[in-house]
Amino acid sequence: MTEDKKTPLYDEHTALGAVLTGFGGWLMPLRYTSDLAEHRAVREAAGLFDLSHMGEIWLRGAGAAAALDHALVGAASAIAVGRAKYSMICAEDGSVLDDLIVYRTADEEFLVVANAGNAVLVASELLARAAGFDAVVEDRSEATALVAVQGPQAEDIVAGLVAGADVDAVRGMRYYASAPVTLAVTGGGVADGGSVEALVARTGYTGEDGFELFVPAESAVAVWRTLLAAGTGVGLVPAGLSARDSLRLEAGMPLYGHELDRTTTPYEAGLGRVVRLDKAGDFVGKAALAARKVSPPARVLVGLRGLGRRPARAGYPVLGPSGVAVGGVTSGAPSPTLGYPVAMAYVTPELSAEGTELSVEVRGRAEPVVVVPLPFYRRPQN
Asked: Which helix (H) or strand (E) holds 42?
C-alpha cells in the first residue's frame, strides 16, 4: 500500500495538535480542537484550511480554450479572463470522472483544480484530450500549495495582507473570480517585510464567503502562519476535514465519491446545468449526455431533513412509505448550524418531490425524514 503523502504544512498541523487522517492519498488534518468549534468558527468568523492536496493543472497556448472545450462538459472558451466556472470531466459514457473548477487567468492560460484523489487521472486525461490542440498541459500540483480562508471575516483578513491596488482587487472580487496579488508575509523562512506572489480566488466549499490562495509550495508555511496571526484577533481558527465536510453538506455541495462517481452523470446529481451541449464542436461524453438529458432518470439527488435526532450516514438505505428501499444516503450528519440531522440521498423520481415523507434505516431502526430543497443553508446576505 502506498504511503499517504504529506502537504507542505504537515509540520504546522502536528505542531497545532491536529488529528490526522488519510484522504485522497494525503495525510490531512481531520480536526484541531473540536468539529463543532471549527464548524461554528467558519459560520461566525473564519476558518483556515489546508487544501494543498488538491490538484493544479495548467493549460497554456492558443488552443488551450478549445482543448478544454473538448475535454470538459462546460464551455471554457466562454470564461472571461479573471473569472472561473464549475465544471466536470466525464468519460465517454457520460459518467463523472471528477468535478473541477476552471480559472481563466489570461487569454491563453487556464488553471484546472481537481480533487486530490483524482488529480493524477485528471492530469492524464487532460494531456491525452489536448493532443492535436495548440496547448501545453502542465501538472503543477506538487509545486503548489493551496490554503483557504472561509467565513464572514475572510475578506478583511486577506485584504489586510495586501497593499495598493491589490486591496481593491480583493475587496472588489466577485464570486467565482480570481486575481494575482502580492501577499505581505513573515516567518516560515520568509524574512520580515517579505512577500509572496499568489493567485487569490473567491470560490469556496463551505457556503460562506471566502478566498483560496494558490502559492508556491515553499511559501506555504509563511502564508499559513501569517494568516493565522492576522485572523486570531477576529476569531479565525485552523479547521480540518471534518468541519469542511459538515459545512459543505449544509451548503448542499457534492463530494466526489459520495454524490458523484463513475456510476453517475451530471443529470442525476441535479447538475445538468454545467453541461453545454450547445457549444461548438464535439466533446468527450457528448453523445451519451445528450441521450441522458432526454431520458427519464432512474434516481434523483435530494435533500433530506431528519425529523428525529439520529443522523443518517453515507450508505444507509432510504425507505419508502411501504418500508422498501428506494435509494441510499450519499452524505449525512447532524447540522451544527440548523440543529437537526441533514443528508443528501439518491431516491427514485416518484419520491423526490419536496415534502415527501420517507425514512432512513439507521442501525436497524427506521428514522423519519422529509425531502427538502438543497441547499439546507444559505448564508445571510448583507
From this structure: helix 35-44
- Does residue 266 lie in a domain region? no
SS3 of residue 61 by DSSP: coil
| Cell numbers placing 31 | 480536526
Looking at the 3D structure of the chain, how many domains does it have?
A: 3
Domain's final residue, options 80, 111, 132: 132
Q: Which of 307, 375, 378 is nearest to 339 (CA)?
A: 307
**Nine cell digits for residue 284:** 468527450
What pLDDT sits at residue 35?
Answer: 98
Exposed, middle or buried: residue 258 (CB in 10 Å: 0-12, 13-18, 19+)? middle
Q: Which residues contact 139 (CB under 8 A, 6 or more apart)?
A: 55, 56, 57, 58, 119, 123
Domain assignment of residue 287, yes or no: no
3-state SS assignment for residue 247: helix
Rounded-to-integer distance, Cα 183 and Cα 187, Å: 13
DSSP state, residue 163: -
Q: Which three cell numbers stand for residue 297?
A: 432518470
Residues annotated in a binding site for substrate: 212
Domain, as residue range, for 26: 5-52+143-249
Name residues whose C-beta falls within 8 Å of residue 158's C-beta, 6 or more positions apart in sequence: 149, 170, 200, 211, 213, 227
Q: Whole-model pTM? A: 0.96
Residue 371 has pLDDT above 70, yes or no: yes
What pLDDT does residue 150 have?
98
Rounded to an integer, what distance in angstroms lies between the CA atom of residue 377 and that of residue 298? 27
Nearest alpha-carbon partner for 54 in 122, 138, 125, 146: 146
